[in-house]
Amino acid sequence: DAGITQSPRHKVTETGTPVTLRCHQTENHRYMYWYRQDPGHGLRLIHYSYGVKDTDKGEVSDGYSVSRSKTEDFLLTLESATSSQTSVYFCAIRLAGGRFSYNEQFFGPGTRLTVL
Amino acid sequence: AQSVSQHNHHVILSEAASLELGCNYSYGGTVNLFWYVQYPGQHLQLLLKYFSGDPLVKGIKGFEAEFIKSKFSFNLRKPSVQWSDTAEYFCAVNAREGSARQLTFGSGTQLTVLP
To answer: For residue B102, what pLDDT band results from cuts at 50, 70 and 90?
Structure first.
């Protein structure tokens, strides 16, 4: 499982409230990612990080922010949750580096977020 | 920008039937290709990957995929499916040039295997 945990695993919140999801890894991987999974859309990249304090936007970044102050933690914040952000959120790490890197990603268990 | 198409949204098979799931990508350069599986209620797990070399790659649980560069395809196959293969399957591509950090996923194919 590449030592990835996500918290909380389930959350129900109300529209307009801020929400922070946490991804924690234990293997010192440089690259970390946040995706959301919705029926018919597969997984879509929200934000990613390529080092401490180094982040970049993905395909669906509007309404989300991220922070990475330590290698092991990558936080995803919904600044003001909306019903359209009801989804399952997956964190991933990328095995990187070296000539034979496959750039494959390994995923955490997911967080199911419901915004009422 | 790269994109991935999985044309089969839901496939229903009986046990022992053969499986082929289609995956086409659009990107003109060199790519890494992946198939992931998601069993009900679980996270994505890597089934197999293509980096270079032999275009026929074998993964876990008897799955294989063939990379056909001229067709921009990476179809997943299994000669004889089992009930336990019921899951959602995602194809993904990673461009190896430029910002080679992002995976782009297809929309997924739900496979239901009837006992």
So the answer is: confident
